[in-house]
Structure formats: C-alpha cells, structure tokens
Specification:
Belongs to the HpaH/HsaA monooxygenase family. InterPro entries: Acyl-CoA_dehydrogenase, Acyl-CoA_DH_C, Acyl-CoA_Oxase/DH_mid-dom_sf, AcylCo_DH-like_C, AcylCoA_DH/ox_N, AcylCoA_DH/ox_N_sf, AcylCoA_DH/oxidase_NM_dom_sf. One of its GO terms (molecular function) is flavin adenine dinucleotide binding. This is Acyl-CoA dehydrogenase family protein. With 371 residues, the protein is an alpha+beta fold. The chain has 3 domains: 99 residues, Butyryl-Coa Dehydrogenase, subunit A, domain 1, CATH 1.10.540; 100 residues, Butyryl-CoA Dehydrogenase, subunit A, domain 2; 142 residues, Butyryl-CoA Dehydrogenase, subunit A, domain 3 (Up-down Bundle), CATH 1.20.140. It has a 4-stranded mixed β-sheet with strand order 1-4-5-8. It has a 4-stranded antiparallel β-sheet with strand order 2-3-7-6, with no helix packed on it. β2 and β3 form a beta hairpin. The protein starts with a helix and ends in a 5-residue tail after the last helix.
Amino acid sequence: MTVSTEIRTTVAEAAALAGTQAAKADAERRVSEEVVRAVVDAGFARWLVPARWGGSDRGYTELTEAVAEIGAECSSAAWLACLAAHAARYVACLPEQGQADIWGDGPDTLVAAVIKPQGTASAVDGGFRLSGSWTYVSGVEHSDWALLTGPTPGPKSGGQPMRLFAVPRRDYTFEDTWSSLGMRGTGSHTLVLDDVFVPEHRVCLREDAFRGATVGLPGRAPLPNPAVSGLTFVAPVLGAARGALAVAAQLVAVAPTGPRAAAGQAYQVEFARAAGEIDAAQLLLERATAVVDGGTLTPELARRNRRDFALALQLLADATDRLLRIGGTRAQEDGHPLQRYWRDVRSVTSHAVMQFEPAALDYTQGLAGPA
C-alpha cells in the first residue's frame, strides 16, 4: 500500500508529531489539540468527503496506509484519524440539507459517530427530540458534530426504527469516563444531551446508512457496512503492530546475556514469525481495500472482506503478543513503548464486532446462499 506523493509529507509530519507525544497522550488520556490539528491538516477529515462538498473523495487503500503510518507512532492518534475519515460515509447518507449543515463551511469538520443505539427519540413536528447518554464516543472532546444512533431498542423505543441523528457541538456535552487499559489517548468519553431538537433533514435510517445509501451522489454504488467498517479497527492496529516490530527489532539485534542468553535464537524465531504475521495482515487488507476501491462489490466479496478484517486483526494481535514476550520483563514496565503498543492492540481486539467467529460463520454460511 502506498500514499500519494502530494499527501505523504503532511501525513509523515502528523505521524512524527504524534510520536513525540505518544507517551504523554497515553499518560494524560488525551491526544493534544496540536496533534488533532496536524491530523486534520493532513487531510483525514476530508479524505472520504464527496468532491461536491470540497472533499478529497480519496480511496480506502491510501487511507489505510496513511492511518497505519500514524499508528506506528501513536495508536490513539491513528484511531482518531481513522474515525474522522470514516464518519463521512455516514454523513453522506443524510438528506442533502443535513450534509450542507455539516460540510457547507468546508470539508474538514470533525464528526464523532456512534453506531450503537442508545438514548430516546420522540417524533415531533419537523423532526425529533433526542435525549440520553452515548458511551465510548472517541474524539468527542475535539468534535464539531456528532452522529448518534437511537433510540435504544426495547419497550421505551415505541417500536421506532433505529436512526442516525446529526447534532452540532453546541447541543451536547461530555462526561470524562474513559479510563481504559489501552487506546487511552482516544478520549472515548460519554456524550450527553437533553431534549435536543433534531430536524428531519439531519436524520436518516441506520439501515440505509449501513447499506451505504448515499444521498445526492448519483452513479455511486452503495458501500455496505460489513465490506469496509472493519478497517476502522484494523488500520490503526496495523500501524501499532509495525511500531512494536520496530521496537523489538532493536532488542533482537543485540545478543542477550545472562538468563536470557539461552533464549536468543527463540526470540529471533518469534520475531520472524511476528514480522510474517504483520505482512500477512497487510496483504489481506490490501486485497480488501482493492475490492472496495474497485467499485464492483458483490455480497460474496463483502462477506470475504468482513472475514479478512477479523482475521487480520487476529494475526496482528498474535504478532504483538510475540513481540511483547521478546521484550521480557523490562518491556512490561510503565513507559516502555512495547507494552503501550500491546495494550492498544489488545484494547481493539476486545470489540465485539471484530470477533472472528461471527465473521467466519457469515462467510461460510453465505457460500450456500440464503437459507
């Protein structure tokens, strides 16, 4: 995967800056405004924004590599960069006036998107009244808008279908609730709003957004969620695993002494296996993004992409486990980059939607066609 020359420099600059602040972001549980601004300046927020709104309208192959470049320096910054880019997929499914509200002043708007349905929504003249709390909203502190999914399924939903609601920053606050093992700098706090009016033109059905039903973009083929959403998880982890590999390379380059001397060759073998697993994950992602960028996406390819995203994440987690073992006890000390990369990777692998088993069953059962 390669990043075009015109943006390679700004991405590299953002990555370098994020790297100098990675330990601080981890300790303080927030990526700095300076790094967020560098991510925006590198074009991540506008990456997938349609050209009609002034966006770059670039592809997913380049995006994945650019996110991984940031992730090799700071996983949390890469996570925010990736989500900033992918949010545009959902914004493009809003009515045109809603898109204009968000992108009318420019394509670099930072949108925090929450796909899990929470909160309550009541239909009123001209729109909805929205209330509630939404957990794990990465980047909420830096966001200009939020895309919130609601209502929460169950008796209080009134039988309403799940929708996406676009809400401007002035209408919501957040509670500092993010204190996690890994990805500490993402600031994935709890967003809160109370009885906020959301006009109909800032609302769409979640089902439509999931099937990629964009509005005002004639000729663009729908991009269903399973075919691409896994990249938001795996691309930052690809970078983190590369960062861990670079740290471990320095360790295996020095012959171990003392009790570790007998394990020297074993560490070298583990390093080679980890490097191979990272390469294999990258190849899976390259094939998946080529399918997405190619514009011809069948249900079979979408299911294969979902499988490959989950498998790539598993490979990267296994590789990072090996690399942490190479570092031994010293790599587990506070402040050591290997344990930070490992914590970040393991934090991402805990997400329910990225478990391999559901993706594998969907893939295998799909081979036989509809039941």
